[in-house]
Amino acid sequence: MKDVSLSEVKGLVGTEVGVSDWITVDQAMIDAFAGATLDDQFIHTDPERAKAESPFGGTIAHGFLTLSLLSAMNYSALPKIREQTMGINYGFERVTFVAPVKSGARVRGRFTLAEARFRGASMLTNTYDVTVEIEDERKPALTARWTTISQFDPKDRPEDT
User: Has this prediction a pTM greater than 0.90?
Assistant: First the structure.
C-alpha cells in the first residue's frame, strides 16, 4: 500500500497496514543512544562486562532505543495519507518491553490500525497496535499502542466524517 486518501483511512481500521524494513541495532547505534540519553549502564555499553556479568551474553539495546526506532519504521511501513501536510507523535497508551534486543540483531515493526478518528477541522488521530519483532526470535522486543496525528488542510476533510 503506497498511499491512501483521508476518506480511505477509516476503512483500514482492524487491518495490518504495514511491516517495516529491517533495522540493524549495532553497538555503534547503542553507544550513540547511550551518549544522547546519558544512560551508559554496562549492559548497553560494555560488551566484555555484559558478556561476563549479564544474563544476555553481551550488550543489549536500551528499551527506549528500540521504542524510538518506531519513527523510522513508520516511514518505511505505513501508507502515506495523500492530503497530510504534517505528522505528529501524540503518544502511547501502553508500552511493554517483552524481550531484549541484543547488539547486532535486526528489528522491524508491524502496524495494525486500531482506530482512526477525525478531530477538529484538520486532524485525524491514528492509533496503531505495534509489535517490534526481533529477527529469528520467538518473542517480540516490544508491543505498544501508539497514537499519531495526521494534520491536513480543512478543505480536504471528507464530507462524510
Answer: yes
Read off the DSSP letter of residue 60: B
Cα gap 150→36, rounded to integer Å: 28
Residue-wise over 77-107: b if at least 16 C-beta within 10 A, else e?
A: bbbebebbeebeeeeeeebebebbbbbebbb
For β-strands 105-119 and 23-25, DSSP reports them as antiparallel
**Who's near 11: CB < 8 A, 6+ residues apart?**
none
- What the block records as the C-alpha cell of 56 is 544476555
Q: What angle do CA 36, 142, 91 make, to 5 degrees?
A: 65
The phi, psi pair for 156, rounded to 5°, reads -90, -5
Q: Using DSSP, state whether 79 is helix, strand or coil.
A: coil
3-state helix, strand, coil in the chain (%, to 5): 30, 40, 30
> 115 has which bridge partners?
127
| Residue 131 clears pLDDT 80, i.e. is over it | yes
pLDDT (tens digit, 9 = 90+) per residue, 14-67?
999 999 999 999 999 999 999 999 999 999 999 999 999 999 999 999 999 999
Rounded to whole angstroms, how far apart are CA atoms 156 and 5? Answer: 10
